[in-house]
């Protein structure tokens, strides 16, 4: 299985960015852990991070016919981007939305996700573990689909 991992805006600063909210791990740390987990799951990962909405949309579109699944942390675009939601709907690649923080117990503007209705599901609140749980959930979803 080929899985695309997409990190949205400001996630390049993980480790330095509000560590009380987002933890001490850097994006490279998270990607390393995902790679280790993927080896066990026999999945192959491709990583992409951008601060720009258009670049994220281009990456999602480019996943068409190349990746079986998508794990995405859209960052603040979660709460604003109809365009990213439409890109996910357009490619129709099974998608899991992940967040480090529990967006539902934070400011009210973070409670709504434009992405959730086009995702299989959402995992939030487990810090960097959210990504690992998201990857596991996506792989088992894809395996069930294939069976
Ligand atoms: C986030 C939550 C968003 O509300 C925020 O804008 C982020 C990170 C998270 O992973 O907890 O940039 O997606």
UniProtKB/TrEMBL annotation:
It is an enzyme of class 4 (lyase). It holds the Pfam family DHquinase_II. CDD domains: DHQase_II (cd00466). One of its GO terms (molecular function) is 3-dehydroquinate dehydratase activity. Residues 24-51 form a coiled coil. Substrate binds at residues 73, 79, 86, 100-101, 110. Belongs to the type-II 3-dehydroquinase family. Homododecamer. This is 3-dehydroquinate dehydratase. It comes from Almyronema epifaneia S1. The lineage of its organism: Bacteria, Bacillati, Cyanobacteriota, Cyanophyceae, Nodosilineales. The gene is aroQ.
